Amino acid sequence: MADIPRAYLxxxxxxxxxxxxxxxxxxxxxxxxxxxxxxxxxxxxxITGNLxxxxxxxxxxxxxxxxxxxxxxxxxxxxxxVDHAGIGTEIIMERKLADRGTSRDELGREKFIERMWNWKAxxxxxxxxxxxxxxxxxxxERERFTMDEGLSRAVRTAFVKLYNNxxxxxxxxxxxxxxxxxxxxxxxxxxxVEIDGHLYHIRYPIVGSDEFLEIATTRPETxxxxxxxxxxxxxxxxxxLIGKIAILPILGRKLPVIxxxxxxxxxxxxxxxxxxxxxxxxxxxxxRHNLEQINIFNxxxxxxxxxxxxxxxxxxxxxxxxxxxxxxxRDYLIKILPHRHAVGHHERCNQxxxxxxxxxxxxxxxxxxxxxxxxxxxxxxxxxxxxxxxRFYQWMENIEPWPISRQRWWGHLLPMWHCQDCGKTTxxxxxxxxxxxxxxxxxxxxxxxLDTWFxxxxxxxxxxxxxxxxxxxxxxxxxxxxxxxxxxxxxxVARMTMFGLQFMGEAPxxxxxxxxxxxxxHGQKQSKSKGNAIDPxxxxxxxxxxxxxxxxxxxxxxxxxxxxxxxxxEAGRRFANKIWNASRFxxxxxxxxxxxxxxxxxxxxxxxxxxxxFNRTVNDVTVAFEEYRFSDAAHALYEFVxxxxxxxxxEIIKQRLYYTDNLNAKHTAQTxxxxxxxxxxxxxxxxxxxxxxxxxxxxxHQGESIVVTRWPDHDPALNDxxxxxxxxxxxxxxxxxxxxxxxxxxxxxxxxxxxxxxxxADIRELLANHLEEYLPAFTHFSRIFTxxxxxxxxxxxxxxxxxxxxxxxxxxLIDIKKEKAxxxxxLDKVIKDLDSTQKTLNNSSFIERAPEAVxxxxxxxxxxxxxxxxxxxxNLELLG
RNA sequence: GGGCGGGUAGCUCAGCUGGCUAGAGUGACGGCCUUACAAGCCGUAGGUCACAGGUUCGAACCCUGUCCCGCCUACCA
Length: 880
Fold this sequence. Notes:
Blueprint: H1 10-24, E1 37-41, H2 53-71, E2 75-79, E3 81-82, H3 86-99, H4 104-107, H5 109-134, E4 144-145, H6 149-164, E5 168-178, E6 183-185, E7 190-205, E8 212-217, E9 228-231, E10 245-247, E11 254-259, E12 271-274, H7 280-289, H8 316-329, E13 333-346, E14 354-363, H9 366-377, E15 382-384, H10 388-397, E16 402-403, E17 405-406, E18 416-419, E19 425-427, E20 443-445, E21 449-450, H11 452-456, H12 459-462, H13 471-476, E22 479-485, H14 489-504, E23 509-515, E24 517-519, H15 536-543, H16 545-555, E25 561-563, H17 566-588, H18 605-626, H19 630-659, H20 663-684, H21 689-698, H22 721-743, E26 752-757, H23 761-774, E27 781-787, E28 796-801, E29 804-809, H24 816-842, H25 844-849, H26 852-878
Parallel strand pairs: 1-2, 3-4, 9-11, 15-23, 22-23, 24-25, 26-27
Antiparallel strand pairs: 5-6, 5-14, 7-8, 7-13, 9-12, 10-11, 14-16, 17-21, 18-19, 18-20, 26-29, 28-29
Helix pairs in contact: 1-21, 9-10, 9-14, 15-16, 16-17, 16-19, 17-19, 18-19, 18-20, 18-22, 19-20, 20-21, 24-26
The chain binds one RNA strand through β8, β12, α7, β13 and α10.
């Protein structure tokens, strides 16, 4: 046993056991089983590169649930996989191409996609390796990719069904256009970012007069697309201009001056230019007034032929600068004011989006959203934390049609074929030979792809074989719980809910657990550029996967963000080390131990106590897991392992393990210690899979792995409040002795006498029976005297616990001044508490209205405080 | 503009279906290499629970208002 290392060294252990688990096939779920099913589908990581710390948290939590439920006897399935992540991945690839001096356009579609597949292979392997390192018990044999054959068929099937239901339609509206990515995107993908911009005031001459109409705009370049100028119809300043014609500066186009309620008289100068093709509000105004829409941009954000020779072909922001100069020169520019406002940015490439008219395919999600709302309202789906339901409703109730087509290359092609002959569209799951309308073979498939979230929305059932009616679906759909960050509630959770209800007729999950996002130790968002990001891989290497996982789970309070820095992770590692060393100690003392020999009824008080405490911990952890209070579960175990099992139990049984000749007593201690340690390893296993397996294997055990053992049952009958109370008394006495020694600076090696005055005969007996055995673990002492009354020795320090008084004679060591100060401090606090307790008890309303138990509690507290006050006072008097 | 969450120890946060002496991790200070663990052990200090009212026998917790902070959401040019 001496070859067990002193400090926990995770590396080899982790690798060894993961390989073992895989060889045994523990993570592979049975399609059919007598056991109840419990399934989770992973939020598929994007194939954009390495996993970040958010993934570590997300997957640690899922692994906790899966491993815990497996121990409870469920047939568990954790479905793993990765997401092609559409535009996000394309952008990564474009950057890589740029580094090599080439580009997407240069490569062409086919070659580009070929590169994407290679990149996918690379990142997919990395992601899987990192999840394995973390210890994830995924059913790897079933791993899926959103663009693999089966899932692609699911995507086409879903599309065709929706299309045939009339829910998918083509519309040429204003969309959010990303000129950098050259595609339309949905509202969700647009991040409004506050920026310091400008408000440009420009004058538009009025035909047939000397007047000008001053307007204000943040985007002067869009004036090329103006088709009107608008004022408020009741604005007395401008009423007389309504119906007249204004002249567009530079281009000289004629623009009607119109009156529209939309115009805010208070803002700017109370007049605005109307650009229906490039502003959502102007688009609406345009409709109301039958205005022409003039598109002024090319798809890449350069200005098109509608803007006149001088600006044609140049970039939108270059144009803005140039145009402002020209306006200034020609005296159209009145002023430029600083103006802070929100500007939409594409969440993927972070470039400014333009409202732009382009044909897009839309999915009418309204009817699906209604069913989804209903599913949450009637409790078919339950959100944790509950507050997330509000966000869900708010978004769902105001849902807008979802633009699902993207003018990109990487993703699922729309299953649509255009007929060159009749011009009609054929929509089909499998590539059609002929046009469904005219039978022509002259078909070409749409080149657009679907929004990446379309396939994600199918994930809970597409991964299980849908549209086929597979055994897997039958067993594991709907999934038990979806575990993900709240940041993708709308992107993903909402859409999965809608699609699950639509295609499976049943919500895809019973529970949705939305966990925190990981910030740094000061609550700042982690990011590579800020340099405060914690990279999981080196972290796991340095601290071990278990310590890392524990730190994440321990910190995962029900907050929107969790602050996680180096120190939290170090605490996780220290805990793993503590477990390791406690186990190491016990294993060293288990030599010659025969676990098959049963113990009699010679349990010591501390044995009964630790069993009771363990039993309660089983309950605490189980209930916490059931309620997704992961942090509470971690805290309960941390407290039990460190501050009860290690700090007290192990210390106390050293006496029996080392020094006693009583082999029965030793055997009992070994039995209980081994039993509690094994049980604790089970409780810890979902959070810390590796170290618990390693220790469990070395302990006396039945079965081949902790992964497939049984979760301890909580048995209320095993709670032993009597032993807990008795131990509490003993622990208080020991604490008091330690406290005196500490505060009086008694050298650890010097032996002391302990005089205890205990009026209660039961307490005297309790202390007389146990203190001799328990105290040596905590302090050096020579003799203990317990009596009904004790005469205080001259030079002694005193401590009071209720009606128990402890004297420690400290001849030559005691500092009277210090001792008096110590007692005074305690006395002050006791008096304060006593006063407030008395006040409460004197209040007749309290006696009448408060529950009996609360009153009783106060009374007994009052008694204890009173007794303590008297004893402290007496002792102070004795000190003179 | 609307909505949500928060303000508790130096730091990061638990506790909030009202009722033991308000806790943890981390940091600080003092003492220990005590044969499982210095990634450890022992002791100590540190809090008007943002502020002001209200409800109640009783409020960190419930209600109202105020002041800060963060987030989500929205079409103010």
